[in-house]
Amino acid sequence: MRDNDMPLFNWQPPVKVLLFPLINRVGKVRKTAAILSRKHGEDASLYWKQVTSANRKHLTRIGLDEETICAQLHAFHDAVQSEMVKQHYSSGNNPKGAA
Fold this sequence. Notes:
single chain; 4 helices
C-alpha cells in the first residue's frame, strides 16, 4: 500500500451550500432597516437583539457551524446598516450640500 492510497488523503470536507444567505434576503433587510430606523435607544437595541436571535436560531436549525453563522450575522448587520443609510437619504432627509 502506498502512502497516498490511504483514505485519509482522499477525504474532502462536506460542502454546504447556503441557498438564501441573509444579505440576499432583500425584503428582510429592508423591513429590518425600516423598523430599526423608527426605534431609538433601548427599543432599538432590544429589537436588534430579537432579530439577531431569530436569525441565529434559523441558521443553527439548518445546520451551519458557528463560524458561518457569525459571518452571516455580520454580513446581515452591514446590509441593514447600508439600507438604513439608503432609506434615510431617499426619504428626503438629504440636505444635498446645503449649508
